[in-house]
Amino acid sequence: MKKLLTLLLLLCINFWTYGQKITSPNGQLELNFSLNDGKPEYALDFKGKAVILPSKLGLKLKDKPDFIDGFVTYNSEDDQVDETWEPIWGEEKSIRNHYKELLVTLHQDATHQHRTLNIRFRVFDDGIGFRYEFPSQENLAHFIISEEKTQFAMTGDHTAFWIPGDYDTQEYDYMESKLSEIRGLMPQAITANVSQTSFSPTGVQTSLMLKTDDGIYINLHEAALIDYATMHLNLDDENMIFESWLTPNANGDKVYLQSPSVTPWRTIIVSDDARDILASRITLNLNEPNKIEDTSWIRPMKYIGVWWEMITGKSKWSYTDDFPAVQLGVTDFSKAKPNGKHGATTENVKKHIDFAAEHGFDGVLVEGWNIGWEDWFGNAKDYVFDFVTPYPDFDLEGVRDYAKEKGVEMIMHHETSSSVRNYERHLDIAYQFMKDNGYNAVKSGYVGTILPFGDNHYSQWQVNHYQYALEKAAEYQIMVNAHEAVRPTGISRTYPNLIANESARGTEYQAFGGSKPNHVTVLPFTRLIGGPMDYTPGIFEMDISKLNPDNNSWVNSTIANQLALYVTMYSPLQMAADLPEHYEKFMDAFQFIKDVALDWEKSLYLEAEPGYYLTIARKAKGTNNWFVGNVNGNKSRTSSINFDFLDEGKSYIATIYADAKDAHYRNNAQAYEIRKVIVNKKSKLSQLSAPGGGFAISIIEGNKESLKGLKKL
Amino acid sequence: MKKLLTLLLLLCINFWTYGQKITSPNGQLELNFSLNDGKPEYALDFKGKAVILPSKLGLKLKDKPDFIDGFVTYNSEDDQVDETWEPIWGEEKSIRNHYKELLVTLHQDATHQHRTLNIRFRVFDDGIGFRYEFPSQENLAHFIISEEKTQFAMTGDHTAFWIPGDYDTQEYDYMESKLSEIRGLMPQAITANVSQTSFSPTGVQTSLMLKTDDGIYINLHEAALIDYATMHLNLDDENMIFESWLTPNANGDKVYLQSPSVTPWRTIIVSDDARDILASRITLNLNEPNKIEDTSWIRPMKYIGVWWEMITGKSKWSYTDDFPAVQLGVTDFSKAKPNGKHGATTENVKKHIDFAAEHGFDGVLVEGWNIGWEDWFGNAKDYVFDFVTPYPDFDLEGVRDYAKEKGVEMIMHHETSSSVRNYERHLDIAYQFMKDNGYNAVKSGYVGTILPFGDNHYSQWQVNHYQYALEKAAEYQIMVNAHEAVRPTGISRTYPNLIANESARGTEYQAFGGSKPNHVTVLPFTRLIGGPMDYTPGIFEMDISKLNPDNNSWVNSTIANQLALYVTMYSPLQMAADLPEHYEKFMDAFQFIKDVALDWEKSLYLEAEPGYYLTIARKAKGTNNWFVGNVNGNKSRTSSINFDFLDEGKSYIATIYADAKDAHYRNNAQAYEIRKVIVNKKSKLSQLSAPGGGFAISIIEGNKESLKGLKKL
């Protein structure tokens, strides 16, 4: 680490406007901070052109003078950091953290009690992060933020890839529109969800992906959301200014803090090449280093599960239809009549264990194994699950022993039904139960309205809960994959046992009526900016009515697109979500899911345009093997891939899983072609992707034996 | 147990009004149930005169048809129970549970989905209890009660002893007024409190004590408040009808239930002799029997504490003034400058242990022993205490060992600052820490606004919490004395480790400006109907400015009154609240506190008039010793005590601790006289009590030796 520290003391009083500037290490980004009539502002230029116009900074406090104006003096300090660090798992083996820093210490006047507010800016080559810091001081001990007033002033009516701002769900299809069109499109963007609370006709969520008319890509998000309210953005669509809009607690307050403390980082990733947005590591870099000492138990996992059959309605989470209301500890399941559709039976689970073992999967997830699913949803039921009591037809010990014998790990499922107090009350017992029975990873769920009522999924109170569950899991050496929890903000750097989140519209929506075919070309630019997603790809049977005659959903994707997701949707946790019997029909395509790696030496973003296409190549950690994925939007498109990332002088076997020429996500989704060719550093590929299609390539270093009989690309 | 079961099936359709009656075992109370135009009603007569006029019964449901009207048929069943049971501790060794029961099963019409509601009435000789019961049924699984509509229609403009209805505090001075005067007096009745939420200008709390103009005493309360919202009463002061008013959850809903379930019992104690109100065991009888198998660890305790010195402002809970805000686990107390006023120092605590050991006390309570008191209050601080980390000047292990050596038990203190989630998160660790260090009882506290904000102290959500903390304590064999928690409703029958509650204006208010001199003549008729109170009597120094020159409070009580409280304010947990040095000045009076028992064979209520006076005699369990207490209201009064409760043919030494002739709670509070005389079954005592005064008598069986030289009364 090279570290350069300069200290500038500017004691500037009675100037109308004065400022401070700092550039990125490569000089392309220039951040300007200024104090304008006592109000702090910042602006950001890229390659000499404005990307963020002068934007106000500040916070409204409850029952106290605001941190918005009345700033009369400031000091500033410069710093520069250039270091590299190694994540426990990730898109690359080592990550460079290279930025220049500007720490502005602002002092308020007497009517604002002479208080001090710090704003810390970090300017990277690919964007900036900044946050507010509240030093310990006499006139600021405990305080309540009633709103954060951070602006992001746009330079024009950009194109945005957005979902409605909402305190309770992120599970929307993305809209692509001009900023000026958001208000008009909002009603159709707010599709039904089991828990949702929108707040403004121009409110949108982060990470927000933007593109200017002159081809600048801008991404707005946050990093290190710890014990603070989740940030949304509200657009002033007359002036094209976004302003932070925090998720409230039950009584409408936004954040409770005490000094010393800091806010999360507000991040702006900027480039004129969309691929740089995907390659940015700003979100991780702005988080604290790993706090878990022994990480030997944290490892990527590929898994299957007893899940898709319930999602599609082929089977059920519940065991019986006997009870309109279940009382845990009282209701006697041993005498209940089974409904005959329960998915998590010992027999079915053992079948899955067999399949996992046969095909080299690490784990099997089982949902609906524990009692309480008869009335778990929509009933504001406090004591809804106990997380330790299996249904009569699920032999927990038997399954445990069988899985162990087969070398497969069971993955625990903790649906909380958003009865959060109940979950916290049972957390120690539930985690201990996992350890006692050999479960090392848990999928947790927060479906439905938060209990206690009045609170929201993304409030400070709940953000604190997800973190509590995560840190406690680390104590038990348990990996967490939290669904319906707040979207990630790079916290997996600090707590790498957070191996995935849902926090967006995942594959399940393909069985709830379908998602847009280009959905997966947007997610890496939005949801994945904060961390990996348990997207649960790998659906081979697109016609859901074949699983459940009452469900007419269609999976808007080709099989080749489904395979590509294992590369394009980075996650150390990857599910093969479809039923074993569907894979058995397409074992040649399934081979890619079996082969693809989970952890990467490096990642290259070959092609990218949000909403339209992206192609990523990744080198498997500790090997010379590469995997390439391409996902394509609504229209067919031909990719041009250059294999110059391969090692000089080496030959590789590339297995290309591509859409057939007449493939189409809706009309011909299962039409794929697989070909095996030799590639080297000089190879080039021109490859067609169908609408909602894509391709996946495995590139394995060859030897004479294995290359024999193969043609060059 | 004698049990008589009769089953009456009344299938009455298409009658305008029809009813069912049931009398108390002694025939003096008559309950009438009727269905009037599809609406259930009840009325209650005492000795042939109405005490409750026809009153509506029912519940409003959210988003569902109400349980208020549309009842078309009912069945009823009679039952009778006469049993006795032995409490683990109590006012008497054995309690008779003798009632006639009427179970009404009501059926609604088609527009109300043919649902069934049960109302169960139990009629005792001294009052009634009734509750709603929701049987399991097809059209009623999970439901939300938006309001309970239980009426108590008064027969006139009675006199009431009331405190303002409030969702967050019970710590008010009692008002005595006509019902018609409540509205006008409400503003002055709502005195300042650190957390308070009143809801109506005619809203009052239970237990509510009433007296009719023709001398009938009526007490309204509830029993077995489990997982339900606390009931207040709202008065329609035109028609003199009280109606139940439940405490809301954060979102305004009152109760979440599922069938099968029951509400708490609504109780009406009735007599023309105020003493019967005190003698009533209805509240306990309506609770479930003891659920704790091994109760060997539950035992009454007399204790002193490091507490009054902080309450008066003589010393402090906090250790340092260095930190405007404390961050547990980060803030370094080892280097902080002590403020020099910390009460919970090792030295001071050891002094208290010495005093406790010397005078035969069971325990020593220490408040302010754990870090976090610097910013604990009013800051909406989530992680406010960890319940296990002592201040640097409190040697926990040293104190523990010293106490053990001296044969004294330490009593733990868990102030939660109403950060309830934080307490639940630490509960297991905190309880285990207690067991590891020999603490078997905890005083818990819920000062300030409930976190999460929006919730109230007495909502279903919080009631569930107090019960959770109590039941978990039972698992650890820990006794609980919860302050600022919901007022008790006889739950100590079921969980006898609930050895006391505060839940009313206790002695501390004498150091916060003072309470009314007759306060203690009201509490046994109101707060104590639900269970014992940790009132913390025993103040000998009434002039608080002698402890803290900045505090001009005066304890509105004489020393004799303070002694009497150990008898009149029944509790298995009794504190001697004053400082050891104050007791050392009045060791002859202090002797009564040392002698008085904590657990009773039987209790006799010799004289009683709420707000004016009461005299109680109790026989110590397992002995022939009696203790008598009298507390008196605002004016001096002479009691006439008949000792006919003593054993035939035996002589006893009575030590009478009485007000001196010129004693007065304000002018001459420390003037008392002690005399020792011989009493027997035929003795009579005429004894003056000063304003705010009283007397206490210990009656010990004598023998020739001990009686020598004493005069007969």
Summarize the helices and strands and which ones pair or pack.
2 copies of one chain form a homodimer.
Chain A: E1 2-8, E2 17-23, E3 29-36, E4 39-46, E5 49-56, E6 59-61, E7 71-85, E8 95-108, E9 116-124, E10 127-134, E11 142-148, E12 151-153, E13 159-162, E14 175-178, H1 182-189, E15 203-205, E16 208-211, E17 217-223, E18 231-236, E19 241-246, E20 255-258, E21 261-262, E22 265-271, H2 274-279, H3 282-285, E23 301-306, H4 308-311, H5 346-359, E24 363-366, H6 396-406, E25 409-415, H7 420-436, E26 441-445, H8 460-475, E27 479-483, E28 498-501, H9 519-522, H10 559-568, E29 573-575, H11 580-585, H12 587-595, E30 600-609, E31 613-620, E32 626-632, E33 637-642, E34 652-659, E35 672-679, E36 684-689, E37 694-701, H13 704-707, E38 711-712
Describe this entry's structure for a reader:
Chain A has 713 residues and is an alpha+beta fold. Chain A folds into two domains: 3-285, Beta-galactosidase, Chain A, domain 5 (Distorted Sandwich); 301-596, TIM Barrel. Helices cover 16% and strands 34% of the residues of chain A. In chain A, the strands form seven sheets. In chain A, strands 1, 7, 8, 9, 10, 13, 14, 16, 17, 21 and 22 form an eleven-stranded antiparallel beta sheet that branches. In chain A, strands 28-27-26-25-24-23-29 form a seven-stranded parallel beta sheet. A seven-stranded mixed beta sheet of chain A has the order 30-31-32-37-34-35-38. In chain A, helix 10 runs parallel beside helix 12. The two termini of chain A are 43 Å apart. The model of chain A is unreliable at 1-16 (pLDDT under 50). Chains A and B meet through helix 7 and helix 8 of A and helix 7 and helix 8 of B.
